[in-house]
UniProtKB/TrEMBL annotation:
Residues 17-152 form the HTH marR-type domain. One of its GO terms (biological process) is response to stress. Pfam families: MarR_2. Keywords: DNA-binding. GO terms for molecular function: DNA binding; DNA-binding transcription factor activity. This is DNA-binding MarR family transcriptional regulator. InterPro entries: HTH_MarR-typ, MarR/SlyA-like, WH-like_DNA-bd_sf, WH_DNA-bd_sf.
Length: 154
């Protein structure tokens, strides 16, 4: 072990905490990769699906780039590059944001809505197969409670 950290300054994980942390990481990676694989089979990525589904729920099927980036936990520049690829495929279009001269709205196109409508049943089946159907109602309740504790700011 490096001498950079003193044992008093670092709160090392005990064996139970380490097992729980590693199990959580393995679970997140497994679910993410499995559901991403299922979406990739129909030509969409997880971020594609997130953008399309979020926009479909918004008034006018539109959201500012800033709002969408915040929802996804991405920088505006990262989302802008991703949106450019989606725009080239006809899934979204950009419109100027009248409240922010440097910003824009992402708008779900008809092709994007059709892609989402085609993907939604496949994605939901994937979520069921990889998560929901493998857990009891008590497990689902516990998972929801844990997620709520972890999703907010620390």
């Amino acid at each position: 072990m490096s001498k950079k950290w003193s044992s008093e300054a670092v709160r090392w994980l005990d064996a139970d905490e380490e097992r729980a942390w590693r199990a959580l990481r393995r679970m997140m990676i497994a679910i993410q990769s499995r559901t991403a694989h299922d979406l990739a089979a129909i030509g969409l990525s997880d971020p594609d699906y997130e953008v399309l589904s979020t926009l479909s729920e918004r008034p006018g099927r539109a959201s500012t780039l800033r709002e969408q980036a915040a929802k996804m936990g991405w920088s505006r520049s990262r989302l802008s590059r991703h949106a450019s690829r989606m725009e080239a495929r006809g899934l979204v279009r950009r419109e100027p944001d009248p409240d922010d001269g440097r910003g824009c709205y992402l708008v779900l196109t008809e092709d994007g809505l059709e892609a989402l409508e085609d993907a939604a049943p496949i994605h939901l089946e994937s979520v069921r197969r990889h998560v929901i159907d493998r857990l009891s109602p008590a497990d689902l309740s516990a998972l929801e409670n844990i997620a709520r504790k972890l999703e907010g700011p620390a």
